[in-house]
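Re: folding output
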Amino acid sequence: MESLTKRRLSPAELDGLAHRALGSGVTRSTELTDGFANAVWLLTLDDGRDVVLKLSPPPELEQLSYERNLLRMEAAACALAAEAGVPVASVLHAGFDDPVLGGDYLVLSVLDGTPWNQIVLGEAQHAAVRHELGAHLARLNSVTGDTFGYPHAGITGASWREAYLAMVGALLADTERYPTELPLPAGELLARLTAVSGALDEVTTPRLVHFDAWPGNVFLDLTGEPRIQAIIDHERAFWGDPLADLITPTLFVPLLEEDPLLVGYRSVTPVELSGDALVRLDLYRAYLYLILLVENGPRQYPEKDYAPIRDLTAACLTEVLDRL
């Protein structure tokens, strides 16, 4: 989708960046437009390699608080996910604070699979892929860290409750820079979430959470029966409660016990959805819905594309807040 956060580079700038990163020039470049925040190109190098370049927004462009140093989080998360047995694109080079262009970038291996959101699978194939996704998310969630929240953005907490409320608080504070229509005033909304945040105290170990595993970020290998080739875009990852990774794949719909996603997750590690766990799920739904509403501030999506998402998100956030 078009977004003000996507930086435009000339062919000469792309060539120079490739030389600095990999020692090879660019013979062909194609912008990949499916993403929402960072600019992404498919580059063919003069040594014959194809690579993907992912570039952060311009340093002077203000973003949401949690979006500071997103590509640094992605580079770290990719390495940790791969160690845990989760299929990801390889990071070929990570450039931080590039001296010529400014900002950060990643050079990634090319995936020859197909994004899940671009094809229609049969019912059995769809269930099999969701089962596989659940298992991969469980493996990713097995990775533990030292602190809760977004260390790369400086939004953390000594406990998961403290970190979650800091994450929500930072997002609501962003609405002072980017006025956003919300179902409740920011202070009242934070108070509503704080009132039930005791349910978060069950989480005592920071675990790696992708928090963006929607079908567009899942590449499929279609050479035989569809299988997951890689999970991409780890930039929104944080350290927190594994339950949060069950939210994005069930965006706008309930998580059902018979969902193959949950069955696949449980094939790797047990998870129970009862009591405080249900409250935690709604807290994570509320946080994701807030992101979808507030992020339009710096990104300025085209109104005709964004309006249906905004309206559905606002309705779902209202429903969650009423339930809480």
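--- second protein (sequence, then structure) ---
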Amino acid sequence: MRASLLQIGVDTEEPVKSRRLRAAALVRERSGSDLVVLPELWPVGAFAFDSFQAEAEPLHGPTYEAMSAAARDAEVWLHAGSIVERAADGALYNTSLIFAPDGSLAAVYRKIHRFGFDRGEAVLMGAGEKPVTVPLPDTTLGLATCYDLRFPEMFRQLTDAGAQTLVIPAGWPARRRAHWSLLARARAVENQCYVLACGTAGTHAGVEQAGHSVVVDPWGEVIAEAGPYEEVLTADLDPAKVAKTRSDFPVLRDRVLGLDLPRP
């Protein structure tokens, strides 16, 4: 299974429409991949809070249309990163769209953990309500977004729901890049899953981005990693390695806390 992570550079001087067309072209160029992943809030920038209201779009808006067409043309599964979604009631959400190779919408995930500590995304956007998994022919995806990466209990739920590949688009700041790399490997090791963590390059509203998108195998080994600039990162995954890792080192069967056990 071949996965391509599109570490797009977000420049506020580039109009959103132009970046949307550029992202769609990059997806079409990955027609040899099985799965393509874009970063978090790449149309507007994850830290461009002042632009969220102006750039918000309905679920079936221009990004949906562009990404659906690109997935269909490339015949790939596409995790289209996330958009600022404006729901029917006017509320904003950080929403991921996943498309099947025929361009149909396979899943929607609204980010559960909002970053900002009472500022920015944390007050401007609503929270998603539940984790989401997506069955593919060769693996099952578990969906998360950026700040979600810091909450291991969410990934346990995804693993319990059958996830074998964790997909994490992000707009992660450069000053916390060490956390990004560490947490991506930790989520892979503790859940014995592949991790596909796709970040952005460039600067969002003055916040330098970490880049360094990474693919980690179920044993915690980094099998591909990008640099700090715009880059396409491609790696071949062996879906059977998840089952083999869990069989050879069956740590998940020894879980006690967090399970539905009788209370003392």
